């Protein structure tokens, strides 16, 4: 989608602190980090959110989780991290292009707020 923030970041039209890219996903540092590690892993395909995803998106959704695991290993935060998808405005979704938050590097409480 031409005017989507994350599509524009993926195309390089808006700068980001990229940490990983492959044919299917693009990952960069969150601009407002909630933990020492806070990375967004974004499918290159524009998918509005998890509830809009369809069966053919299963591969890239799974790949996003594996990219998170790879980055967590690379950053040595495997003693505790979280992957989070906020779904809908009431859960805090503010960008309507599906993305996975990788959060770690500090103690994480349960249940989340
Ligand atoms: P969510 O609230 O789950 O939709 O997550 C959107 C995330 O995108 C938030 O954590 C924001 O801090 C982050 N964000 C918004 N704009 C940018 C940007 N230009 N670069 C990096 N992260 C951003
Ligand atoms: Zn998009």
Q: How is the biggest beta sheet arranged? A: 5 strands, antiparallel
* Helical segment count: 2
Q: Estimate percent helicity.
A: 10-25%
Q: How many domain regions? A: 1
Q: Which of globular, elongated, flat, extended, rod-shaped describes the shape?
A: globular
How are the strands ordered across the major sheet?
A: 1-2-3-5-4
What is the residue-mean pLDDT, rounded to a whole number?
97
What is the distance, rounded to the nearest whole angstrom, between the alpha carbons of the first and last residues? Answer: 31 Å
Low-confidence stretches: none
Structural class: alpha+beta
The fourth-level CATH homologous superfamily is HIT-like
The CATH architecture can be given as: 2-Layer Sandwich
The kinds of small molecule bound in this structure are: adenosine monophosphate, zinc ion
Count all strands and give the number: 5
> Helix and strand succession?
HEEEHEE
CATH T-level fold name: HIT family, subunit A
* Rg value: 13 Å
Class, according to the CATH hierarchy? Alpha Beta
Strand percentage lies at 15-25%
């Amino acid at each position: 989608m031409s005017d989507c923030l994350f599509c524009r970041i993926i195309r390089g039209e808006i700068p980001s602190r990229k940490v990983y890219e492959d044919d299917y996903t693009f990952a960069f540092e969150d601009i407002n980090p909630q933990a020492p590690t806070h990375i967004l892993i974004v499918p290159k395909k524009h998918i509005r959110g998890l509830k809009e995803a369809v069966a053919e998106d299963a591969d890239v959704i799974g790949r996003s989780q594996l990219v998170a695991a790879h980055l967590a290993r690379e950053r040595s935060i495997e003693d505790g991290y979280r992957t989070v998808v906020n779904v809908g405005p009431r859960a805090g979704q503010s960008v309507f292009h599906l993305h996975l938050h990788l959060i770690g590097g500090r103690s994480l409480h349960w249940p989340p707020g």
